[in-house]
Amino acid sequence: MRLENKKVIALVENDFEDLELWYPVLRLQEEGAQVDLVGKEANKKYIGKYGVPAESAYAFTDISADDYDAILVPGGWAPDKLRRYPEVLEFIKKMNDAKKPIGQICHAGWVLISADILKGKKVTSTPGIKDDMANAGATWSDEAVVVDGHLVSSRRPPDLPPYVKALADKLAVQ
C-alpha cells in the first residue's frame, strides 16, 4: 500500500461536514495511512452536520505535528470553531513550514486563513468564502481541486474523488 507508514491528523469538531471528514479518512486508510482523529478533547464524540459521529483518539495537546506527515481539515461549520484553537493554528503553521501536505475542503479554508499561510497561494474553496480567501492574499479558482505545492484544496462534497486522490498522491511522495 502506497501510504503505509504515513500518519495523518484529521481535525474534528462539532458540525463538521460528514462526507468531507469520512470520505478522505476512509480513502487514506484504504491506501495504508494511519489517520488519527484529533479534537479539543480525547475520546470525545463529535457530531457532524448530518448526525454522523466521529470520536477523537487524541486531544490537540496530546500530539505534535512533527510526528505526522499530513493534516486534513474538513469543512462544514467546524472550521469556524477549529480556527479559534491556538493548537490547531500551530499545527497548520508547522505543517506549512515543513511543506507537509495540508488538505482543506469547503469552509476549511477559514482555518488556513487564521493560520495566515495563504498569501501568494492558489486555492479553491466553497464559493461562499471566496472573498475571505482572496482577502487573505490567495488567488481563488473555481476548480474541483487545486494543488499549490503542499496545499491541496477543494470546493465541496461532489469534488471529493479528485480532491482525495490529489491529497493521497501528494502524501505518497512526502
Automatic annotation (TrEMBL):
Keywords: Hydrolase, Protease. The keyword Protease applies. InterPro entries: C56_PfpI-like, Class_I_gatase-like, DJ-1/PfpI. Gene3D superfamilies: 3.40.50.880. The keyword Hydrolase applies. One of its GO terms (biological process) is proteolysis. Residues 6-168 form the DJ-1/PfpI domain. One of its GO terms (molecular function) is peptidase activity. It comes from the Bacteria. CDD domains: GATase1_PfpI_like. PROSITE patterns: PEPTIDASE_C56_PFPI. Belongs to the peptidase C56 family. This is Protease. It comes from Virgibacillus indicus.
